[in-house]
Amino acid sequence: MQWFKRKYGRFWQLYLFLALPILYFLLFKYYPMFGLQIAFKKYTIVKGIFDSPWVGMKNFTKFLNAYQFRTILRNTLTISFYAIMAAFPFPILFALLLNTVEKMAVKKTVQTITYIPHFISIVVLVGMLMQFFNPMAGVYGTVTRALTGETPADIFANPSAFPHLYVWSGVWQGFGYNSIIYIAALTNVSPELHEAAEVDGASRFQRVLHVDLPALLPTITIMLIMRTGHIMSIGFEKAYLMQNSLNLSTSEIISTFVYKKGLASGSANDYSYATAIDLFNSVINLILIVTVNSICRKLSETSLW
What we know:
Blueprint lengths: L1 H7 L3 H19 L17 H4 L6 H7 L4 H19 L1 H11 L4 H12 L6 H11 L6 H10 L13 H17 L1 H7 L4 H9 L4 H25 L7 H7 L5 H4 L2 H9 L8 H29 L6
């Protein structure tokens, strides 16, 4: 007991603060895992979790054999990889460019303007997209009619346009806010390195390439590993709000499919089936993040664990 007091008693206030996030994770992250067992049962609300009959892997087999499986998986992976290739480099480039700005007032103004879109709710963002690309009253329709004299087609009714609308609206909304962590990493770069490179005759671009970028590589690696762990988990709200019967062939993803099967089917809600799909999704994400982390650990000294 005395050893415990000596070791932890001095900083009991810090451990008290630490107890709050631990309690949060226990209640809202770990305790709900108890309900994952319904993925292996024919769950009904009347019988409850314990009394519902066990069906084993039947729900997983049902999903893998579903006629929508290939389409849903293809749409999810297409949008996710598209988002990584399009959205991931932008915050890095923006942070590198902003770091070259010497006037603090200009830098703070640009930062504030680019951070604002992050705080726009998904519902408002989708509403803005629908208004902007409205073929009758939107900017898109007005400009097209002025140039061609014809009313353009509805972009939201075009399945091939959905991934582009989804990804690039996300790039616009998030690149400023997502650059914060890279800007913070650049503040740790010693000014002496830039001074030495400048004395050696390095241009501003060469200093960015050989001083700033190497300093960002550990942060970039960690962020890429974490992003890989969400490849199968695309935000449900935005995709669902942008969906319609005409673009469903490219807009139906795993998260929207889970919602429709588990909560939006009325009396036909299949909680076990929806839970099985979501568990399948989480297992794939876990495998991906462990694999990518192992690769990064072998290729460099940076990894999550």
